[in-house]
Amino acid sequence: MSRTLGFKLGAIALLILLLMIPLLMIDGLVDERQGLRHDVLQDIARSSSYRQQVTGPILVVPYIKTTHEWKTNKTTGERYTEERQQRGRLYFLPERFVLEGQVGTELRARGIYQARLYHSDSQVSGQFRLPARLGLGDDLGFYRFEKAFLSVGISDIRGISNDLQLRLNGQTLSFAPGSGDDSFGAGVHAPIPALDPQGGQNLEFAFDLKLQGTEQLSIVPVGRDSRVKLRSDWPHPSFVGEYLPNRRSIDVKGFTAEWQTSFFATNLEEALRDCVVGERCQALFGRHFGVSFVDPVDQYLKTDRAIKYALLFIALTFAAFFLFEVLKRLAVHPVQYALVGLSLALFYLLLLSLSEHLPFALAYGLSATACVGLIGFYVSHVLHSWQRGMGFGALLAALYGMLYGLLSAEDYALLMGSLLVFGVLGSVMVLTRKLDWYGVGRAAPQA
């Protein structure tokens, strides 16, 4: 039975559209597995500790202000004074804030899923410089100061793994649970000795903080001059927050990053005032920087990206199949196209399932080898020649290699994809430059 060229091309196009059905199902399975892994990661974090953010230390000085107001008795007309007491707090940010930390990572597994935890060992130090008369314009005689304390906000206090001790001007003081101020959320605080209400003091502080968390560690630079230095064995850091490191070094052994900010860059005093007065703390907590310890491109993201190239991949394979058919005058039934297409779709299911148990590169190699071997064996019989089957398999293997290059080179994926399509189009034009397409349409190849 003769078939026109237009009918064959239409059948191939229809097959490509039909093959999108199993590909969409596999893409949905990727999203489902990714969601399951996210639930497991959250469960692991729930039983250990979530991502951590350190805010502070901030010096808090509670006070009671006593005022006297003259009033008149409406009945007798006599004047008298009424005493009122008003509670408030003064907040002071450090003049200098320094944090140096060493961060190690580990994997926690639950079933086939893994979560990356980190353990930071940090040394925090700095200085508070109290203004004269504590910055109060009124007569200090109206004020009675209560016990001041140093507040450190820590987003998940379950991650604290050492006995926190504050070293303040040569004294050693103990931290207590709770930040001591509702504005700063969870954390710790350390009551400090009575301050001189006349101010003008310098308070040198230091403490060690060992902290466990998952996914991300961030720090709010509370000092007028803030310097933070982090070292880690994690080779794929993703720097987050509003400030990038001033200096950083990344290699296969890990990374070193240094940040330096000032009040001019952070405007933290205004953010602190909005937090404690206007109860708008988003600006204070949002002025952070840090590092994320998650895998930049996991197996699910890579598989999802591979599926996005599936239409192009199937079209190129069918184009090569069609060229064999046209140039060698062979008859290939649409069912045979469909079987080859299903084998190509099965590659993505194999890749998804194997990558959950093996490194992605190994899972990709095994999946590609299995599909190339199966299709090469089948095509060698369809094209009536094992040499043609081997040639087709070699072309398919090259396509799989190019696809892996696209997945690995994230920054150059568009450029490489464009060059691939241009190269394939050029090859088709060169191979068919002398082909009589009208002749192909009239003369049906013999089965």
UniProtKB/TrEMBL annotation:
<feature type="transmembrane region" description="Helical">
    <location>
        <begin position="360"/>
        <end position="379"/>
    </location>
</feature>
<feature type="transmembrane region" description="Helical">
    <location>
        <begin position="391"/>
        <end position="407"/>
    </location>
</feature>
<feature type="transmembrane region" description="Helical">
    <location>
        <begin position="413"/>
        <end position="432"/>
    </location>
</feature>
<keyword id="KW-0472">Membrane</keyword>
<feature type="transmembrane region" description="Helical">
    <location>
        <begin position="306"/>
        <end position="324"/>
    </location>
</feature>
<dbReference type="InterPro" id="IPR010364">
    <property type="entry name" value="Uncharacterised_IM_CreD"/>
</dbReference>
<keyword id="KW-1133">Transmembrane helix</keyword>
<keyword id="KW-0812">Transmembrane</keyword>
<dbReference type="Pfam" id="PF06123">
    <property type="entry name" value="CreD"/>
</dbReference>
<protein>
    <submittedName>
        <fullName>Cell envelope integrity protein CreD</fullName>
    </submittedName>
</protein>
<feature type="transmembrane region" description="Helical">
    <location>
        <begin position="336"/>
        <end position="354"/>
    </location>
</feature>
